[in-house]
Amino acid sequence: MNPILIAVIIVSAIGLIAGLGLSIASVLMAVKTDEKVEALRAELPGANCGACGYSGCDGYAEALAKGEAKPGACAPGGAEMNAKLGEILGVAVEMTEPMVATVKCNGTCDHVQNKMHYTGVSSCKAANMMYGGTLACSFGCLGFGDCQQACQYGAITVINGKAVVDPDKCTACTACAKACPKSIIEMMPKERAYAKVVCSNKDKGAVARKVCEVACIGCTKCAKVCPHGAVTIENNLARIDPDKCTACGACVEACPSKCIAL
């Protein structure tokens, strides 16, 4: 018999046996998938932002299927998607209140002073490692846009040296808050009217005012005029409880630094 033909037969036989072996192994060693998990995962947006409290959409889908989590925690998905999750699980959905990212700083280039000229990597995280960043205010927005790059929805941009959030695009996925080295981005109620302190400076009044024209100076005037006890002063910084605030505007009028906004 022709040696070439013999070689072809041998190689073909080996390939046939190997293919048969792989087919049998794929059946015997197949990992069973939960159809419910797959159905849930197909509805989730795939942002993997962690706002639901799990590592990502896969983890949330598995937790939902096991009954360890409740639908309604996916902020990027919105009400319609969370309702579909409830239909798959056969349970009622208790929607959480819509939230929006809020930058607790109003120190634009027009208001805050610089303490150095920075020529390093254009990153808030990198700049923050150099003596807390370029700004004289060690609590303010650095303006290099780490939050903007982290946002998958184009909801945050840097304008005049400060991050600005578009509430219509924000899904409260928390990616921007995690990317901010100053931790000045918070998730706050989106649809309620309430006053907000757009400052994070915890220095004493004289120091805060020296580095930024619109910094909170902890003067307590806002707390004194609030008729509902919604304003408190903690570490030289005013804080407003959205659950108590009625958006009456008294604190906004009383604030000498104009760092409270409705």
Q: Tell me the number of helical segments per DSSP (H or I, 4 or more residues long).
A: 10
Q: How do the helices and strands follow one another from N- to C-terminus?
A: HHHHEHHEEHEEHHEEHE
Tell me the name of the CATH class of the largest domain. Answer: Alpha Beta
Which spans of ≥5 residues are poorly predicted at pLDDT below 50?
Answer: none
In short:
By secondary structure, the protein is an alpha+beta fold. It contains 10 helices and 8 strands.
What labels describe this entry?
262 residues, alpha+beta, 3-methyladenine DNA Glycosylase II, Chain A, domain 3, Alpha-Beta Plaits, two-stranded antiparallel sheet, 34% helix, 11% strand
Report on the architecture of this protein.
- The chain is of the alpha+beta class.
- It folds into three domains: 35-89, 3-methyladenine DNA Glycosylase II, Chain A, domain 3 (Orthogonal Bundle), CATH 1.10.15.40; 98-191, Alpha-Beta Plaits (2-Layer Sandwich); 192-262, Alpha-Beta Plaits, CATH 3.30.70.20.
- It is 34% helix and 11% strand.
- The chain contains ten helices and eight strands.
- The strands form four sheets. It has a two-stranded antiparallel ribbon with strand order 1-4.
- The longest helix is centred in the first third of the chain and has 26 residues, at 3-28.
- It is elongated.
- The N and C termini lie far apart (92 Å).
Layout of helices and strands, plus pairs?
Layout: H1 3-28, H2 35-43, H3 57-66, H4 78-89, E1 99-103, H5 124-128, H6 146-150, E2 156-159, E3 162-165, H7 175-179, E4 185-189, E5 196-197, H8 205-211, H9 221-225, E6 231-234, E7 237-240, H10 250-254, E8 260-261
Antiparallel strand pairs: 1-4, 2-3, 5-8, 6-7
